[in-house]
Design a protein that fits this description.
- With 327 residues, the chain is an alpha/beta fold.
- Helices cover 40% and strands 20% of the residues.
- It has helices spanning 2-13, 41-56, 72-82, 94-100, 130-144, 159-175, 193-205, 220-229, 256-270, 303-318; strands spanning 27-32, 59-64, 85-89, 108-112, 123-128, 149-154, 180-181, 185-186, 210-214, 232-237, 248-254, 278-281, 288-291.
- Helix 6 (159-175) links the parallel strand 6 (149-154) and strand 7 (180-181).
Amino acid sequence: MKKLLSVLLTLVMIFALCAPAGAEGLKVALCVAETLGDLGFYDSANEGLKRLEADFGVVGSVVECKSDASMYQVALVEAAETHDIVVAVGWQFWDGLTAVAPEMPETKFIFVDNGLDGVGDNLLSIVYAENQGSFLAGYIAMKLSENATVGVIGGENSDTINNFIVGYKQGALHANPEGTVLDPIYTDDYEAPDKGKEAALSLYSKGADVVYQVAGKTGLGVFEAAQEQGKYAIGVDSDQKYVNPEVIICSMMKKVGDSVYDVISAYIANGTFAGGTIWEADMSTGLVGLGYGDDTMPQQVSDELKAEVEALAQQIIDGAITVESTR
């Protein structure tokens, strides 16, 4: 709680603009590049919107672009015409925001998961230190691997996805320098669980007994493969252990919903908006870390290993460990 309060205070203090918004009737549109239902990244953003609706009376709406590139800019324009704040979730909105935000200065835009600079004072970007959380996930994966071999599946070969992967690999080799991190498999699809399952089966067949999924809805197929093979998997973005507590040992969380909630609730409370800035939510903010489900679920990660991970997290926060990054 203290970390979240610290984040909120930081947001309130930096570069204020515009008068207080008032909560009732504030219209917020959530534009997602693909679709809801991934039980992670997009659903987390939507959960943040729902909390804003419940706590402040915000009027929210969701636009799903369904991976249609022709929709990205159109969705932003249409949302901006009828909403006070537009939250664009996904790197796919980069070009659209670059074009639309300067032309619609009365609307505030929040770009989730990528950093756009120099576009305008009505655009705030949020990026996450997913490499730091993934370091911890890799450490656990290797510690629990009987074969000293682990794998990872990415939705695409991009800087953002590779930021997860480099941290995961570094953490795994920190746990066991003699271990093996198999080459990643990229599915080039975030909406196809069948492709995730096929990719995971391939990695399990090569000796991996833990596979980390960084592939949105496609990654749900990894959990199916782990169940069939009697292997382990690691979730992403939200605490996904509830999806299959028997095989998901932990999840690397980027609390997208919390960050969206914090930014907009600060604007509602104080009229402040950190426009024209890029906010990095790293491990010190409490918005990046690991989830293990709850006490009703089987815990494959021992208390001793969790304590090791907490110590490593503190070393990352303190700067004693520098996690590699593709950003």
